[in-house]
Amino acid sequence: MVTVRLIGGLGNQMFQYAVGRAIALRRRTSLALDVSAFPDCGQRQYSLGVFRIVEKLSSGGLMRIGRLKGLCHRVRIPGLPYVLIEWGFPFDPSVLEAPANVYLEGYWQSEKYFKEIEEVIRREFCIKSEPDGQNAEMAARIRGINAVAVHVRRGDYASNPTTNQHHGTCPPEYYRQGAQLIAAQVSDPHFFVFSDEPDWARSNLELGGPATFVAQNGPEKGYEDLRLMALCRHHIIANSSFSWWGAWLANSGGIVVAPQKWVRSNELDTRDLVPTGWIQL
Question: Measured between alpha carbons, how far is 226 from 50 in angstroms, rounded to an integer?
Fold first, then answer.
């Protein structure tokens, strides 16, 4: 059995599921989702239940093994699964050669981990339920025009000094340049802005075109924002795994603008995070 430890928000959990699913299919075995980190993972909670995934939850995690990551990232202990801890940010092809009985801990933020099962992941990350009235109306609007999803990630990225020091936020100038780039190539673009701080976005973004600020879905319905983002043809994403998935799931052949600098640190190598064909500013 392949077991993957889930941590973080919805976007992070989607990456973790995807790598586990890829290895499980390679090894022709089952996948278990270790949710033992919740609800102790700050305000985060298990969020993948909205999707049509292969869902087998496990609460008996090997979290204690994580303490070994400062010593090694591949751990063999008799009687336990082979433990594979993410050692660095770039894609590691050897991870896909993991044995059938493996426990995975990490973020695994690259489509290269699941590119070979891309259609499976797209199919399983469909939301089970139909959108409610307001979201259904918004979806119909998006389908009828040259919709551009603009995701503005703030929250703890802006308010928590430690988080801000690591991640940083995309400045208004980044969004202005992204909107200009798209407007130069797309006729009559309409910008749909998604943000955890919509008032800040309204006050600070200058997109140079018609814009709709999507604010009907709170944090507990983030998957509805994700569905709407994926319906848009073009995207300007933040340095956020959530908006990364909104653009990737769209699969529309449109323009995707992503930040050149994903994190503040120059030591973190993010070259495998942004798919080929996306434009980095």
Answer: 11
